[in-house]
Specification:
By secondary structure, this protein is an all-alpha fold. The protein contains 4 helices and no strands.
Length: 87
């Protein structure tokens, strides 16, 4: 990411710590854009690309946790779900 050089001095006290943290974190993120680009090229060329593609351990963990919660909820309410059918 490239930021413009423009800065409003009145906001420096608030934004300087944000800018500093952003600069320190740059290049340290979990995701690797070059690897993601290679995967996307594979997906584009695939005969059966995925409908949903998770890139990175953070995305995978988030979705796996959500799916586990979803399964638990569905199983907990299964009797109610089945009770709505004709006998």
């Amino acid at each position: 990411m490239v930021r413009s050089g423009r800065s409003i001095a009145d906001y420096d006290a608030v934004f300087d710590p944000v800018r500093k943290r952003r600069q320190e974190y740059s290049g340290q993120q979990a995701g690797n854009p070059a690897k993601a680009a290679q995967v996307l090229l594979q997906v584009v060329e695939s005969e059966r690309p995925p409908v949903h593609l998770l890139l990175g351990q953070d995305a995978l963990k988030l979705v796996e946790e959500r799916l586990a919660h979803f399964v638990d909820e569905v199983e907990a309410w299964e009797p109610v779900s089945l009770s709505t059918d004709f006998s």
